[in-house]
C-alpha cells in the first residue's frame, strides 16, 4: 500500500492528494505489471494551472519519479503578458490563425534539465493549412513574462507512407434496425469505430455488403483499406497487450471516438492523426509519385498516435517527439507482422507502399533515407521528429533482430559492438510496457533507455538476457545511461 510519495525534492504527501502547497496530482490510469506491481500515472496542476511536462508515475510503493520539475512553490501565476498579446506574438511567428482563447499553463517540456525549468506560459493554438494541403493545430508556448516562444508542438501528427490496397479482406459492418437494407462501414465488434468521407462527412454505406472493387477510382476502396487496417490494429493491441483501442473506455463496451476519414484534401500526399477531433485522415496521393495513403502500416501508425496520447503522452517536440514518431513507426511494422496479409508482406520499412520511389523510412539503418539519424547526438532533439525518430527505430530493430545482416536488413551499431536480438515479440512487450508504465510526456532518449531497463527488470528480472539486450541495443545507437553494468 502506498502511504506517501516523494516528488522531486518536494514534500511527502499521499499520491491522491497533492504534491506541495498549491499543487495537485490527478490520477489518470493504473497499469498493473507482473506480480501485481502497480504503476499509477498522474497529471500535475499548480494553482489551478496544468503543468505541461509535469506528469509523474508512482511505481508500487516506491517514490514517484519526476524528471521534469523543480519545486513550484515560488513560481508566480500572474502573467506580465496578456493572452491576446501572446496570440499576436505566436501569429507573427507562424503563418496560421489563432483559434480560441490562449490558455495559461506551466510549461516544463524539454530535452534536458535546463530546458525543463518551469515557467508560466500562454498556450496559443494556431490552426490553418500547411504547404501541400496538410492541416495544422500548432500549440505555441509563449513565456508569460518575456514573450519569448519557449517551444511548440502540433496536435496534427502527420506522416507520409506507402499507400496500397489490402486486397480481398473480411469486414465487420453494421445494420441499423430501421434500415435493414443498408449496411454501414462501422464495426460494432471493435468499439463501433467507423470510416467516413472526409469531404462530405458522411459515413460509408452499401446495399449488399460487397464493398468497392479494389481500384483507386472507386470511392469505397480507400475506406475498405482503412477500415480493415484499423480492425487489424485494434486486434493487435487487444490480443498482444490486452489494450483496447478506444478513446473513452478501456473495455470493449461503449462507443469509440476514433474515427477515420478518407479522401482528405485535393490529392493530398499525406496522412495524419489529430488530437482536435481524435480522428485519422488519409489523402489519396497524387497518383503520380504517391499512391493512396491507406496502407496497413500507415493506418496502424496513425492509430498508435491515439495510444500514445492516452499513455505516456509524449510531447510532439524535441527528443520526446522523435520517440513518439518512432513508437508509431514500430507499431506499424508490428501490425504488419500480426496481420500477415499476403498483399503486404511484413517488413521493417515504413510506408513502402505509398511513395513509388521507395520506402519513406528504414528501421535497420535509418540514414538510408538520406536524412534520418542512425545514432543519438546532442543535435538530435533539434531535428524534425520524423528524422530524430531514427534513433528509436534503430534501437528497436537492434533489440528485436540484433545487429549485422539478417532476413530483415543490415544494421550496424554506432559503437561497433555486436547486439543479439531478443525477438520481435519480446521487444514489443518491453517497448509497450515502457510506454505505458515508465515514460512521461517529456521523456527523451536517455530516459527511454532507463524506462526500458526498468520494464525489463519488472518483466524478466534485472541483468537477464532481455535486460542486457536493452542495454546493448540503446548503447548501439549511442544512447548511454547511468545504469550499472551487469556482472
Structure description:
This protein is 26% helix and 22% strand. With 487 residues, the protein is of the alpha+beta class. Strands 3, 4, 5, 6, 7, 8, 9, 10 and 11 form a nine-stranded mixed sheet that branches. A hairpin with a 5-residue loop joins strand 3 and strand 4 (38-46). It starts with a strand and ends in a 12-residue tail after the last helix. Residues 1-18, 158-163 and 248-255 have low confidence and may be disordered.
Q: What is the helix content? A: 25-40%
Low-pLDDT stretches are 1-18, 158-163, 248-255
Beta-strand content bin: 15-25%
What is the number of strand segments? 24
What's the N-to-C terminus distance?
Answer: 33 Å
Q: Give me the secondary-structure category.
A: alpha+beta
Computed Rg: 22 Å
What is the tally of helical segments? 8
Global outline: globular
Estimate the mean pLDDT confidence. Answer: 86
Spell out the key features of this protein.
487 residues, alpha+beta, nine-stranded mixed beta sheet, six-stranded mixed beta sheet
Q: What's a concise summary of this model?
A:
The chain has eight helices and 24 strands. It is α+β, with helices and mostly antiparallel strands. The longest helix is centred in the last third of the chain and has 22 residues, at 318-339.
Amino acid at each position: 500500500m502506498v502511504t506517501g510519495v516523494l516528488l522531486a525534492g518536494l514534500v511527502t504527501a499521499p499520491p491522491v492528494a497533492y504534491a506541495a502547497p498549491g499543487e495537485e496530482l490527478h490520477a489518470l490510469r493504473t497499469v498493473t505489471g507482473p506480480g501485481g506491481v502497480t504503476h499509477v500515472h498522474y497529471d500535475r496542476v499548480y494553482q489551478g494551472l496544468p503543468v505541461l511536462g509535469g506528469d509523474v508515475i508512482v511505481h508500487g510503493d516506491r517514490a514517484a519519479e519526476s524528471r521534469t520539475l523543480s519545486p513550484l512553490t515560488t513560481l508566480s501565476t500572474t502573467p506580465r503578458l496578456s493572452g491576446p498579446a501572446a496570440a499576436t506574438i505566436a501569429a507573427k511567428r507562424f503563418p496560421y490563425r489563432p483559434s480560441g482563447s490562449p490558455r495559461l499553463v506551466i510549461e516544463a517540456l524539454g530535452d534536458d534539465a535546463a530546458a525543463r525549468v518551469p515557467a508560466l506560459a500562454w498556450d496559443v493554438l494556431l490552426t490553418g493549412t500547411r504547404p501541400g494541403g496538410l492541416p495544422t493545430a500548432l500549440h505555441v508556448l509563449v513565456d508569460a513574462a518575456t514573450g519569448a516562444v519557449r517551444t511548440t508542438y502540433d496536435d496534427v501528427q502527420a506522416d507520409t507512407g506507402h499507400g496500397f490496397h489490402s486486397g480481398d479482406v473480411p469486414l465487420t459492418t453494421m445494420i441499423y434496425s430501421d434500415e435493414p437494407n443498408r449496411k454501414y462501414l462501422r464495426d460494432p465488434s471493435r468499439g463501433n469505430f467507423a470510416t467516413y468521407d472526409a469531404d462530405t462527412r458522411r459515413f460509408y454505406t452499401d446495399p449488399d455488403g460487397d464493398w468497392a472493387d479494389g481500384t483507386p477510382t472507386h470511392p469505397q476502396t480507400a475506406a475498405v483499406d482503412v477500415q480493415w487496417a484499423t480492425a487489424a490494429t485494434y486486434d493487435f493491441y487487444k490480443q498482444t497487450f490486452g489494450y483496447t483501442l478506444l478513446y473513452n473506455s478501456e473495455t470493449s463496451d461503449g462507443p469509440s471516438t476514433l474515427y477515420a476519414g478518407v479522401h482528405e484534401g485535393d490529392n493530398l500526399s499525406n496522412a495524419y492523426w489529430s488530437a482536435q477531433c481524435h480522428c485519422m485522415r488519409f489523402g489519396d496521393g497524387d497518383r503520380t509519385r504517391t499512391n493512396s495513403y491507406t496502407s496497413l502500416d500507415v493506418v496502424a501508425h496513425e492509430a498508435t498516435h491515439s495510444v500514445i496520447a492516452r499513455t505516456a503522452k509524449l510531447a510532439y517536440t524535441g527528443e520526446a517527439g522523435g520517440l513518439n514518431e518512432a513508437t508509431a513507426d514500430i507499431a506499424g511494422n508490428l501490425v504488419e507482422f500480426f496481420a500477415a496479409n499476403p498483399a503486404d508482406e511484413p517488413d521493417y520499412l515504413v510506408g513502402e507502399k505509398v511513395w513509388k520511389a521507395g520506402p519513406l523510412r528504414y528501421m535497420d539503418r535509418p540514414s538510408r533515407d538520406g536524412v534520418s539519424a542512425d545514432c543519438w547526438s546532442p543535435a538530435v532533439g533539434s531535428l524534425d521528429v520524423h528524422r530524430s525518430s531514427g534513433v528509436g527505430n534503430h534501437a528497436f530493430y537492434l533489440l528485436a533482430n540484433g545487429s549485422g545482416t539478417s532476413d530483415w536488413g543490415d544494421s550496424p551499431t554506432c559503437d561497433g559492438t555486436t547486439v543479439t536480438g531478443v525477438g520481435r515479440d519480446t521487444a514489443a512487450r518491453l517497448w509497450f510496457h515502457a510506454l505505458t508504465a515508465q515514460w512521461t510526456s517529456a521523456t527523451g532518449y536517455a530516459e527511454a533507455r532507463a524506462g526500458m531497463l526498468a520494464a525489463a527488470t519488472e518483466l524478466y528480472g534485472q541483468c537477464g538476457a532481455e535486460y542486457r539486450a536493452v542495454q546493448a541495443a540503446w548503447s548501439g545507437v549511442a544512447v548511454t545511461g547511468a545504469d550499472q553494468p551487469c556482472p
